[in-house]
Amino acid sequence: MNDSGRSADSAAGSKRKDARRNQRVLLDAAAAVFVASGVEAPVRDIAARAGVGVGTVYRHFPTRADLVIAVYRHQVETCAEAGPALLATAPAPYAALEEWVGLFTGFLVTKHGLAAALRSDNAGFETLHAYFLDRLLPVCAQLLDAATASGEIRPDVTAYQLMRGIGNLCVGAESDPRYDARLLVGVLVAGLRRPD
């Protein structure tokens, strides 16, 4: 391959990388706006938070459903990738678990609003829910196993039980300003600790 072919490949790769970065910025902005204002928030608010024009949002996500699904998948991936990274950097497995549960809780508060927006497409939502479980159950199990092996937590709670409990505590949190799901999830996670 000659130099012009290599530079064309390099330019194309750079454009793809920029497009992925721009899409990530849009998804992060949409998630933040959804948390603050709900999934029916105006697209102009998402565009403003991302620092782009409204047309850019529609170019990436032609419909609101496309955007909602993309935010959901993006948040699942962010949560899934965070687990191993936290285990590698946290001072102890329990600290990694606590931090991951905080991220997971933030996602769940948003997820309930996303779920409501997707109710008209039940089959699509079921597919997304299966994706959610397939990606996040193993991550939660890895964190629990590490904290159990280190002797920091009790061994009798499964990843599914913990995720289901956290999910139940998050129901309705997005629409009730008097309810702090994070506080109660913190109590739940603290209850996993072995007594000294």
TrEMBL record:
Identify the PROSITE patterns for this entry: HTH_TETR_2 (PS50977)
Q: Which Pfam families match?
A: TetR_C_43, TetR_N
HTH tetR-type domain boundaries: 20-79
**Sorted alphabetically, which Gene3D superfamilies does this protein's record hold?**
Tetracycline Repressor, domain 2
Identify the domain of life.
Bacteria
Name the DNA-binding stretches: 42-61
What are the protein's UniProt keywords?
DNA-binding, Transcription, Transcription regulation
One Gene Ontology molecular-function label: transcription cis-regulatory region binding
Transcription regulation found in the keyword field = yes
According to UniProt, the name of this protein is TetR/AcrR family transcriptional regulator
Q: Which species?
A: Streptomyces nitrosporeus
